[in-house]
Amino acid sequence: MKELNNKFHCFLNLLIEFLEDTYLAYSKRSDNKTIKRFIKERERSYIKKTLQEGQEVLKIDPFPWKWIQDITNRWVYSKEKKEYVEDPESYKKWIAETLALLEKEAKKQGKL
User: Fold this and answer.
1) H helices within the chain, ranges in order?
2) Cα distance between residue 55 and residue 57, in whole Å
3) What does the alpha-carbon distance between residue 21 and residue 98 come to, in Å, rounded to a whole number?
4) Are 71 and 98 in contact (CB under 8 A)?
5) Cβ(63)–Cβ(45) under 8 Å?
6) Is the peptide bond before 64 cis (omega within 30 degrees of 0)?
7) What are the residues facing 76 on neighbouring strands?
8) Where are the domains of the chain?
9) Distance separating alpha carbons of residues 42 and 40, to the nearest angstrom
10) Is the distance from CB of 75 to CB of 69 less than 8 angstroms?
11) What integer is the mean pLDDT of 67-84?
12) What is the model's pLDDT at position 27?
């Protein structure tokens, strides 16, 4: 895990934002709010690097879902199974959706 932390430092910081929101404002948190705040507080180059690293993480085989779970301290909700799950595909899907949201919101805020 230390290797992933070092290699994907910007992406790691995005994941840490999700962890912090869980503890600071659990009842009011949402992925969208976390993403918006992350973008507001970062420079354009940092956001681009975060997206690049996130795309690299999505290509890792086997997918490091446990690393993501450990950093964010969260389980991913599977709409199909209607429960929280611990499986690589659900985490991979959540990361892909998160990166898409990050890119969309960064464009909206004029940071991409």
Assistant:
1) 2-7, 9-24, 31-40, 44-58, 65-72, 88-108
2) 5
3) 15
4) no
5) no
6) no
7) 85
8) 2-108
9) 6
10) yes
11) 84
12) 57
Q: Give the bridge partners for 83, in sequence order.
A: 78
* One-letter identity of residue 3: E
pLDDT at residue 14, rounded to an integer: 96
CB of 50 closer than 8 Å to CB of 11: yes
Query: How far is the C-alpha of 82 from the C-alpha of 50, rounded, in Å?
Result: 30
Residue 81: alpha-carbon gap to chain centroid: 21
Cβ distance 95 to 68 under 8 Å?
yes
Tokens matching residue 75: 């389980």
Residue 26 has pLDDT above 60, yes or no: no
Cβ contacts of 13 within 8 Å, gap of 6 or more: 50
Q: Residue 25: which pLDDT band, with cuts at 50, 70 and 90?
A: low
DSSP labels for 49-81? HHHHHHHHHHT-SS--HHHHHHHHT-PEEETTT
Residues 6+ apart with CB under 8 A from 2: none
